[in-house]
Amino acid sequence: MRIWLCGLCVAVALPVSGGERMTMTVTPAQAHAPSPLRMRIRIEPSDENRLLTVTADSGEFFRSSDVQLEGARAPRTIELEFREVPEGDYEITGTVKDGAGQRRSIVRRSARVIGAGSY
């Protein structure tokens, strides 16, 4: 029997260019397809933060979301949900970019959505 618990996945990433830190939590603890994936991203404020991009990629399914950031005035915590995610092993990536499109921070997590025949 193949059972995989996605658990409360937490990652901490060091920034690309020093200064900030970014964390991301991916839930639920156990996911059966189709399932929502919820991401909570915490970003340290900086005047240079202009765009947060979050992607979920299994190789067979891809979803992404962009959130405009207002520099240091942006919320410290951003919550996103990808609904109806099909079966697959996913790499969830959060990336913060500056106004010139340069990557400032990146964080990666893995999640698995189990299909009906997989448990």
Provide an overview of this structure.
The chain has 119 residues and is mainly beta. The protein has one domain (9-117): Immunoglobulin-like. It has no helices and eight strands. It has strands at 9-13, 22-27, 35-43, 51-57, 62-68, 77-85, 88-97, 103-113. The chain has a four-stranded antiparallel sheet, with no helix packed on it. Strands 5-4-7-8 form a four-stranded antiparallel sheet, with no helix packed on it. Strand 4 and strand 5 (62-68) form a beta hairpin. Mean pLDDT is 85; it is low at 1-20.
CATH top-level class: Mainly Beta
- The rounded Rg comes to 15 Å
Which structural category do the helix and sheet elements fall into?
mainly beta
Helix fraction, binned, reads: under 10%
Distance between the termini: 6 Å
Mean pLDDT over all positions: 85
The helix count comes to 0
From the structure provided, what is the oligomeric state, counting identical versus distinct chains?
Answer: single chain
Q: How many strand units? A: 8
Spatial strand order of the main sheet: 1-2-3-6
Summarize the structure.
The protein is mostly beta strands. It has no helices and eight strands.
